[in-house]
Amino acid sequence: MTNPNDIDAGRLSILLNELRLPAIKMLWADFAEQADREGWPAARFLSVITEHELAERDRRRIERHLSEARLPPGKTLDSFAFDAVPMISKAQIMAMTAGDSWLAKGANVLMFGPPGGGKSHLAAAIGLALVENGWRVLFTRTTDLVQKLQVARRELQLESAINKLDKFDLLILDDLAYVAKDQAETSVLFELISARYERRSILLTANQPFGEWNRVFPDPAMTLAAVDRLVHHATIFEMNVESYRRRSAMEAKRQRARPPVYATINEAAQIDAPRQLEE
């Protein structure tokens, strides 16, 4: 004889599929058993399983947004050397990643400094933290995006391509300085900046200060207009520090030159001998 409970469970499984509630479908039986055993009121049982469903939806959403963000791996705020960039306030960065109101207002973040100073790392780390807090982010090299927009322009789809980027609360444009100096390329970049002005946020990294942007935008009027739109509602970070990559390489070189920690007197003497000869 068929057990009515089995029929009810099978029907519930079908209904939960129809309602697209996979977490509840997977967990309800265990929680129902616990509720029966501990005498939970119905409201508590419903509250527990719906909380798990919402948590699972959040997890899946963050997973999707991380996939579409195209962030470089390993770039987190925990791994960023704030002590090597003393002009950057960790407290300020943490407040920014909480979202505050700057993303809702379409405000921008601009990072300037020489190559190797940590701009890309910090930009990607901010992007990662924002995704984890529920925002949608896209990280891209400026040259790559410009080339895609150029293709869209040739196919008469530029407006549509720019509109599709509206789904991202923050667009991270890495290495502005590497955009080619061609008028056609820089004009599509300018159109993107103009389209997002006061609507969607841009985080931009650049090696050159504003005074040298005429090398990026060959038209002086376009340069002025682009700068004006970017800085109007912007937080600007000047990261003028020695290259992190160069510091790491020099430190590794010094480590190789040091005597072993447990070296014998003879081994240490052999390592120091070339130095003495040079002196």
Count the DSSP helices.
11
Give the spatial strand order of the biggest sheet. 2-3-4-1-5
Q: Return the CATH topology of the largest domain.
A: Rossmann fold
Radius of gyration: 27 Å
Provide the succession of SSEs.
HHHHEHEHHEHEHEHH
Give the biggest beta sheet: 5 strands, parallel
Number of domains: 2
> Average pLDDT across residues?
83
Give start-end ranges of low-pLDDT stretches: 260-279
What level of helicity do the residues show?
Answer: 55-70%
CATH architecture of the largest domain, please? 3-Layer(aba) Sandwich
The percentage of residues in β strands lies in: 5-15%
Keywords: ATP-binding, Nucleotide-binding
Pfam family, one: IstB_IS21
Protein name: Putative insertion sequence ATP-binding protein y4iQ/y4nD/y4sD
GO biological process, one term: DNA replication
Task: Please give the structural blueprint.
Elements: H1 4-18, H2 22-38, H3 42-69, H4 90-97, E1 108-112, H5 119-132, E2 137-141, H6 142-154, H7 158-164, E3 170-174, H8 183-196, E4 201-206, H9 220-231, E5 234-238, H10 244-257, H11 265-278
Parallel strand pairs: 1-4, 1-5, 2-3, 3-4
Helix pairs in contact: 2-3, 3-5, 4-5, 6-7, 6-8, 8-9
Write up what this structure looks like:
The chain has 279 residues and is α/β, with parallel strands linked by helices. The chain has two domains: 10-68; 71-244, P-loop containing nucleotide triphosphate hydrolases (Rossmann fold), CATH 3.40.50.300. It is 56% helix and 9% strand. It has helices at 4-18, 22-38, 42-69, 90-97, 119-132, 142-154, 158-164, 183-196, 220-231, 244-257, 265-278; strands at residues 108-112, 137-141, 170-174, 201-206, 234-238. Helix 8 links the parallel strand 3 (170-174) and strand 4. The termini are far apart. This is Putative insertion sequence ATP-binding protein y4iQ/y4nD/y4sD. Residues 105-237 form the AAA+ ATPase domain. Belongs to the IS21/IS1162 putative ATP-binding protein family.
